[in-house]
Amino acid sequence: MDFSIEPVLPSDAPRIAEIYFSAFNNPLSMRLMPRNEEGYAFQVANYKKSAEEAQSGPEKDMVKVVGTAPGQDPVIAGFAQWKFYDGTPIDEGEKKEKTQWPSGSDAELCDSFFARVERERRTAIGEQPHYCLQLLAVDPAFSRRGLGEKLLKWGLDRADEKGLVTFISASPAGRGLYEKHDCKAVHNYEVVPGYSETSMVRPVAGLSRG
Ligand SMILES: CC(C)(COP(=O)(O)OP(=O)(O)OC[C@H]1O[C@@H](n2cnc3c(N)ncnc32)[C@H](O)[C@@H]1OP(=O)(O)O)[C@@H](O)C(=O)NCCC(=O)NCCS
């Protein structure tokens, strides 16, 4: 099978949601996103919106890895979502719209975890422009074939073209892959019992940080 990187289309959202649910089954993800119809519908709507934003603006990138083989339908095997931050300081007083999490999710944990990741990103990066890997997932049926690496490299190459540092909030499953690509752990913290997240920073290739 040959694999290539292509932009995610809004019509890919159901397959992207399917990959999310098959790949993210760690103790944190199980509490954040319920494995029911409402959780699936939430994720489909979420990815459709992200793909539309990626298509229409410069801030977000959403890419998929597509496998093709003679006589077979192409299959989406994984995806990644990236976001540019221009370094504008956040207005702490600004009210963010509250996300309505699907029923069955631990809404308090969702709010506190995503707010924590935001704080971690700002602490690690400060106010310099940067690129951020928001999501990376490969269908377990395609794991350890270099596809996660291909999706990661796509974004890191983009960061290097633009001369940007990269921030990643890494799950335990992703950390080894990121370390292999010069991402340095700057903080590790427990989110729920038995699950720790790691804030990681990668300098622009060829440059040391600072
Ligand atoms: C993390 C993930 C994207 C890796 O995808 P993948 O396609 O299986 O990874 P690759 O085949 O590209 O791995 C490349 C290298 O990364 C490292 N790596 C990948 N998965 C690893 C794991 N579970 N443990 C340790 N190292 C790992 C290895 O060095 C690997 O090279 P090797 O297979 O030659 O040893 C995938 O496991 C996944 O979707 N996990 C669940 C979702 C998740 O946690 N995503 C990360 C969010 S931050």
TrEMBL record:
It comes from the Eukaryota. It holds the Pfam family Acetyltransf_1. GO terms for molecular function: acyltransferase activity, transferring groups other than amino-acyl groups. Gene3D superfamilies: 3.40.630.30. Residues 74-205 form the N-acetyltransferase domain. This is N-acetyltransferase domain-containing protein.
